[in-house]
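Quick one: Helix-turn-helix transcriptional regulator from Conexibacter stalactiti, structure tokens please.
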Amino acid sequence: MSVKYAVLGLLVQRRGYGYDLVQRFEEQVGPAWQLNAGAIYVALDKLEQEGLVRPVPGDDEAVAPTRRRTVRGAPRVVYEPTERGLGRFDEWMAATSSLAPLREELHLKLALSRPADLPRLIELTHEQERVCVERLEEHEGGRDVEALVADAPSWPAVAAAMVRDAEVEHLHATIRWLRRVREAMRLTQEQVAPV
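--- reply ---
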């Protein structure tokens, strides 16, 4: 799973604990992934079980026992990758990435819809387009690649900008698709409407 390797990658960058990893994931990947914070902890557990990460002493504490459910006030468990974890991360980085399948709920609704569902589906496409436009507005003021590289920021800054750029492009494509679907539904309604 990609989340597991993303968490491992964050630990390859520098060691960290659960909440720290959640924050770093948000900073580097952005809101497009919409990751549930609990997934970070699940990934940490899997990574530790597989021997890819291990708990280490924090700045002011001894090595904490393996984390179970943490409670308020419990010491943080700081993790770092093992040698095996570093190797597995390198393998993951070198592997071909697969394209994610289309799994948006609207796609299922379209596939399973009946003619009577078209008016509500048209409304849904308008609602989804509005959400896409709002998310695009959050990205206004982004810098183009040439400007980023010209200012010679660090690679992590450029990489984070490229992830945001992927979301912007995806949102633009989704808006175009929603408009095409809406037009197809509208034309279908006109053809089947009683005269």
